[in-house]
Amino acid sequence: MDDFSLARVVHILSVIMWIGGVAFVTTTAMPAIRAASPPAERLTVFHGFERRFVRQARFWVLLAGASGFWMVESADLWSRFSDGGFWWMHAMVAVWLVFVAMLFAIEPLFLHRRMIASTRPARDYDRMERMHRVVLTFAVAAVIGAAAGSRGLL
Ligand code: HEM
Fold first, then answer.
1. Domain locations in the chain as residue ranges
2. Minimal-distance CA residue to ligand 1 atom 4
3. Mean pLDDT, 10 residues at a time, the chain of 154 residues
4. How far apart are CA 57 and CA 65, in angstroms?
5. E-strand spans in 5-151?
6. Which of 42, 35, 61, 59 has the alpha carbon at shortest distance from 128?
7. Ligand 1 pocket list (CB less than 6 A)
8. Which of 27, 36, 70, 93 is 20 to 30 Å from 8 by CA-CA measure?
9. pTM given for the model
């Protein structure tokens, strides 16, 4: 197997574990917490889930980025980034950058502390649920764009 194909295997696995996790949290865990817990407690219950998922997400995000850039370098695809027709390449990198910023900077340095000490946990939970839906929508668009675009469908 050539190194591009190997990187593609790692890339697809990483994206499934990571975006699949985000989809589960957004469409299943968060609505379930909303239904089962009173507004003031939702944020605390969510943190129990989040702590476990964040560690895995960091791992898969790093692997998705490494395998993605490996493919770009190995097949010399850098010129795609200056071609608007390859918007799905930009979409992948944009989604990746949002998660890198969230998981490695914003969440550990600032957001986690702010959420633990939240004075309006019900409102913060609503906001967080909305943000998850927005980010999941962009991630799904990137997956569809990349899967279709890499086979010349777009
Ligand atoms: C640093 C970030 C990333 C880079 C550099 C990158 C790069 C790449 C490259 C070079 C390909 C192969 C394209 C081709 O065969 O023509 C690819 C495929 C793909 N990527 Fe990414 N990617 C990144 C992040 C992501 C993210 C965040 C997602 C999902 C939200 C994603 C989903 C996919 C999918 C679904 C494929 C198609 C696999 C296939 O069917 O061949 N990638 N990526």
1. 3-149
2. 68
3. 94 98 96 94 89 93 98 98 97 98 92 85 94 98 98 90
4. 12
5. none
6. 42
7. 8, 11-12, 15, 19, 64-65, 68-69, 71-72, 77, 92-93, 95-96, 139, 142-143, 146-147, 150
8. 27
9. 0.94
